[in-house]
Amino acid sequence: MAETTTTEPSAARAELPPDRFLNRELSWLDFNARVLELAEDDTQPLLERMKFLAIFASNLDEFYMVRIAGLKRRQSTGLTVRSPDGLTVREQLARVTTRTQQLVHRHADCFAGDVRPLLEEAGIRIVHWDALSDADALRLREYFRDQIFPVLTPLAVDPAHPFPYISGLSLNLAVSVRDPDTGAPRFARLKVPNNVPRFVQVSLAESLATFLPLEDLIAAHLPALFPGLDVLDHHLFRVTRNADLEVEEDRDEDLLQALERELARRRFGPAVRLEVHETMDPRILDVLVSELEVSRTDVVTVPGLLDLAALMALYELDRPELKDEPFVPATHPRLSEGETPKSVFATLREGDVLVHHPYHSFATSVQRFIEQAAADPDVLAIKQTLYRTSGDSPIVNALIDAAEAGKQVVVLVEIKARFDEEANISWARELERAGCHVVYGLVGLKTHCKTALVVRREGGVIRRYCHIGTGNYNPKTARLYEDLGILTADPRVGADLTDLFNTLTGYSRQTAYRQLMVAPHGVRTGLVEKIRREARLATEGRPAGIRFKVNSLVDEKVIDALYDASCAGVPVELFIRGICTLRPGVPGLSENVRVRSIVGRFLEHSRVFSFGNAGEGDWWIGSADLMHRNLDRRVEVLLRVSDEGAQRQLQAMFDSAMAPDVRCWELGPDAQWTRREGRDHQAELVASVAEQVG
């Protein structure tokens, strides 16, 4: 099913240098380093800095669970496959290990040497057991006895007790004890429970928030867990396991059952990282390395607290003066009259609406569109894709209401959405119980597109209303992720979505659409052809230009086409949040290419593709990043933006993001990202939308 580019490559293609691609994994680590830079930035509010420390740690966990796990799986095959930048798997792992260890130490130093002391000055303390007052220690002993001790299970390791299974991302204590009668040493493992708060509140004073790490509380009470033995030492460690599912899809097997089987296996994936404190006893480390079957290169030493992702819990403290100014998304001005909501259907009959989240409210636009459709007696059918949604999802609730009201409701639930598999299986079953038609997409492909189609009878005429977006139907992440969506009654888009849903739910093999590009057959081919059109226009001396906004740019065919366009004189501006394996600014190759990244309060997540097209403008938005998985192994949708007002909005967004005086990071030909200070692009968008609706 993989897409291939049918257009013949240009003559310049054969002359492109072999070192033109950067390493994908190192580029991702560069992105996480940009997140860390925000934690190190003393102009950020203090709790925002702490939040970025937590995000960095959480990001790194997933990187190991998926990307490093994938490299190790390839290494185990014994094949000497090289990445596009020419590195073997062994060389990639070596470079990633070195870079990761550097970042982990920077991360720990930022917390211990900078953020933690400032938190203490602000009245937020994280202390150790020996710093507690007698009264606090007494109260926490009671808390330990009543709340923690009953759920702890010390596991001995000896000939009669094999080394226990260590679950992924759990905190554990390796405890050394000794029999006082025989002097024989013993080793035990104690899991720090993950169903109680990691940071135990110590102080009851309103002006002072003091917390004790749970592992410190447990360590202070180890004698109670090993009565009659001498506790010699204890060391904290944490294991990361391969969590990348490989579901063997068979047309004759129920995909739901196959996925549930693989989810059960995920818990027991091989270890890919062992985190230990830098003071870990070498003998204990030897035991862990041997029993977990990891190599020394898989060991990451941490000079401070392990698992700083847990700091996100402290971000919830009620300290508004230590956070960004509160932000309330605005209702798009065309979707309300003053404080009164308008009918989404009536609005769309007047023209398209481009919503820009989180600046425009998801609840009063996309969510309201689905809710009004569910409640409208003239709506006959709702068809929607769901990739990720929130725990208590108003979208799912509206779809259930629509089905119970007798409407035809078709929902494609992507149950293979990584780390949301169990939640999506639960949603699928709940939707089925309500009478929705639930399907799981196409064999061998993930359905990643964000699409909704509403069919409505209006005076004897059937009209179709559509939403196509760049982000998930998730009200919670819509307040944190920057995304775009088009709400439209354009009959061409309605016809396209009808055809697409017939492909997703039935046996249609349609690959050509009117206003859409659809992967895995049309996105790469369509974008490459448009890139080459710009190159031809530039060669002819006509206006040409390319602007892309994506999360990741990895696909070699797209990158080579961009290099060709640059050589033809096309100005190429790339706004990329995360991975970029294109090397910009190289004379004779990419001197006309500029790459910029913005990492800030909101996660830049939208995908936009703009082509100059001899002054006519050709704009597309959608769900696809420029990666192999998106272009070859997913159903992705890009929508042509036809509405001139929406095009102007996108133009203004790009102009702001690419302006020379905006705060950003820029990628150089040496693969180094350089930070530029300046105006806050996201803050200006907040102010701009507020002014529009004010």
Outline the secondary-structure elements.
Layout: H1 24-40, H2 46-76, H3 89-121, E1 124-126, H4 134-148, E2 155-157, E3 171-178, E4 185-191, E5 199-201, E6 209-213, H5 214-219, H6 222-225, E7 230-241, H7 255-266, E8 271-277, H8 282-292, E9 299-302, E10 336-337, E11 340-341, H9 344-350, E12 353-357, H10 366-375, E13 379-386, H11 394-404, E14 408-413, H12 421-433, E15 437-439, E16 446-447, E17 450-458, E18 461-469, E19 481-488, H13 491-505, E20 516-519, H14 523-539, E21 546-550, H15 556-567, E22 572-576, E23 593-597, E24 603-604, E25 607-611, E26 618-622, H16 628-632, E27 634-640, H17 644-657, E28 664-667, E29 673-676, H18 681-693
Parallel strand pairs: 1-6, 8-9, 13-14, 14-15, 16-27, 19-24, 21-22, 22-23
Antiparallel strand pairs: 2-4, 3-4, 3-7, 5-6, 7-8, 10-11, 12-19, 13-17, 17-18, 18-19, 20-27, 21-25, 23-28, 25-26, 26-27, 28-29
